[in-house]
Amino acid sequence: MGERVIxxxxxxxxxxAASKARRMNSExxxxxxxxxxxxSYGACGFPYAIKGEIPQVRDVVVRTPEQFAKQxxxxxxxxxxxAVDPATKSVLVRRPDGSEFRDQWDQLVxxxxxxxxxxxxxxxxxxxxxxxxxxxxxxxIREWIETKKxxxxxxxxxxxxxxxxAEALAAYGIGIALIERLPQVLPNLDHEIAAHVQAELERxxxxxxxxxxxxxxxxxxxxxxxxxxxGQHIPADIVILSVGIRPGVGLAREAGIALGPTGxxxxxxxxxxxxxxxxxxxxxxxxxxRVTGRPAWIPLGTTANKQGRVAGENVGGGNATFKGIxxxxxxxxxxxEAASSGLSExxxxxxGYTVEAVSxxxxxxxxxxxxxxxxxxxxxxxxxxxxxxxxxxxxxxxxAKRIDVIAAALHNGWTVDELGELDLSYAPPFAPVWDPVxxxxxxxxx
Amino acid sequence: MGERVIxxxxxxxxxxAASKARRMNSExxxxxxxxxxxxSYGACGFPYAIKGEIPQVRDVVVRTPEQFAKQxxxxxxxxxxxAVDPATKSVLVRRPDGSEFRDQWDQLVxxxxxxxxxxxxxxxxxxxxxxxxxxxxxxxIREWIETKKxxxxxxxxxxxxxxxxAEALAAYGIGIALIERLPQVLPNLDHEIAAHVQAELERxxxxxxxxxxxxxxxxxxxxxxxxxxxGQHIPADIVILSVGIRPGVGLAREAGIALGPTGxxxxxxxxxxxxxxxxxxxxxxxxxxRVTGRPAWIPLGTTANKQGRVAGENVGGGNATFKGIxxxxxxxxxxxEAASSGLSExxxxxxGYTVEAVSxxxxxxxxxxxxxxxxxxxxxxxxxxxxxxxxxxxxxxxxAKRIDVIAAALHNGWTVDELGELDLSYAPPFAPVWDPVxxxxxxxxx
Lengths: 446, 446
Known about the structure:
Two copies of one chain form a homodimer.
Chain A: E1 4-8, H1 12-24, E2 29-34, H2 46-51, H3 65-70, E3 73-77, E4 80-85, E5 90-94, E6 100-104, E7 107-110, E8 114-116, E9 129-130, H4 135-148, E10 152-156, H5 160-170, E11 175-179, H6 191-203, E12 207-209, E13 214-220, E14 223-229, E15 232-235, E16 238-241, E17 245-247, H7 250-254, E18 278-280, E19 287-289, E20 294-296, H8 301-315, E21 329-333, E22 336-342, H9 345-350, E23 355-363, E24 374-382, E25 388-395, H10 403-411, H11 416-419, H12 436-445
Parallel strand pairs in A: 1-2, 1-7, 2-3, 7-18, 9-16, 10-11, 10-16, 11-12
Antiparallel strand pairs in A: 4-5, 5-6, 8-17, 13-14, 14-15, 19-20, 21-22, 22-25, 23-24, 24-25
Helix pairs in contact in A: 1-8
């Protein structure tokens, strides 16, 4: 029998780690404990499953415990790990029936993910107020919509999930108000870029309340009735609380595993924690940000899958390294796409860089093609070295994958001038002869 | 008065050069001679103008001679340059009325473009047989369609223009046969990738005749009636001859300007020819291919615009350089997108590389999203160094701009492994969590 490997958390990073470890080493004994009732699901699909664009919430599940069992991976859902003890190399686990047991590991992979932030506000536990993180959350939201037929929805938080959920609820004809504490939606973007997204929300009849902090919720046992924010009482029969997540580091901290400056678990490029034999990956862990050269915590499904695979390869006896992130992300908000990679101008200044920035608006297709749409591109670069620090892009088509060329430039530390020299694809239905990315980069050249 | 600059050819490269030279130096005297009746047009838009997707052929014209005149650029359409004499720094020009004159230059920019190949076949001059290169060609094709209402069209040549014109004619309900001398369409792609495009053509009711050489055309003064190919008589009331172009180097060759190994004008990275004071750019010139490190002739609008701008900047007293191409191209063929960058496997082997290749089929969106489509990706890399040599991609969505990340990798000489480490964008409507490019790159890793 090979070593016994315990994986705590069975979503993106955890199941990637288990699967890769299995492919590397058929001798390993692989056990996964997952607190919720599901593993191996694409959490990013939940808004589309709630919207009904994906028929069933369960359609986002990639593989079931039974399918993993056939690969020799024992998956225990409904099993919460309560404690990790590095000294005895054991975990304390609570079964669905409430009973507890200890299990031993030779290697431990912590993929406990992120936890939805639930600010301690009056009325927070009223029925009809939801966060969205698990299959159970998504099922509950969809059931609430189908049974209660809410007319007025409030989204608290204008980040990715907030925008996606605004679109999802609006598809039911629910009138949406979006409340954001900050003076803009999508705080990862610079304000003037985010303003384009806000305009799209308003075109879609979403009422956007910026600089409003939620003070509480009112209602009764039938459900939430209103959201109180900035002294205003905003009617609501469904509330989505999407004010962010924090890394789920409770187990790790109690076990003495070192956290990094971001508050997530510190890992090296092999996904090792500071405790030998304990690995971490996914939303619970930091990642090297290649632009700043420092650890960052940007919880995304792509990073979780990659880190999980690296951890799994190393658990299985390999020597894989994770080369880091540049913070690439894209979100669909109704008919709009907003993408970014690297640092915003605001963030770059906060990080201490001396920054220059250029903005261009160019067409998604050749100017003479019907259906062409404006794409707004912003590039941020270091004044002296001209090294690209970040890029942002918004528009109603051609944005999501166009950001990737900026991600490539950031990954490799190119200057904005090098970005402008690329031989990018062109055909009238897909791009103008000068791609919007090149238009922006060439503005920086002057 | 500043120096007198003559630009020969007023399409993409020529007008880019003239405009950039003007912005650099307001003292220059700038004169453009263009043989056809139009300048500054997006020739790549012609198929869409013929199709009717763009209302009028003239809509692809970016700026008119009158508009250039306001910038102080004198544009003479219908003026053909007959000879270039470096010894006297003069050109011989024929006016629209047939009279000729000499004009003097201090600097000369040759942007004479490409010339449609017209193989010397019997019946080639029958009415209804067209090549597509100029505004006049596009107008003539559209007029033929509107007045003659052809029922059966034959496309000769399965390259980019052939496929675009198949789509354009099919939009009128014209039944299309496509005849290609080679055993595949899109010879820049490897055969198994091109086969996906061929399947799409056949789904669209295009009859594809591979390995058939056209032997001639039959008809009468009313027009072409049939195309003879491989002994078959194929009925046709319109024929598009799209068997390629050659560089329009006649003037340059007669003037003693050096051509390169490809037969196009040899230029350095400043767009200088071997004759001081004479520059060349666009489809008439070579470009450094960054993958092979050697000059290549890949005539495309993007390269023409970039080279023209570099030439113009240098003509205007600047010191610009063109960093070269990687051969990125994309074509829309009905509902399909086919893109490539760098070398195909066949081409790489022909160039003498020891090659490995991987192919993957992955989804354009998250697997659970409705409407997701397969994308077929092929990556070609050097066996020993693992340096990426090329990438190809086909599918019905998400291909055109996805190729750009491969173009970036090729531009910089990355290995296939480095390509696989990129932090690419992800959201369920736009990509799976492992982007198709990463899926393919990771296959190469094993």
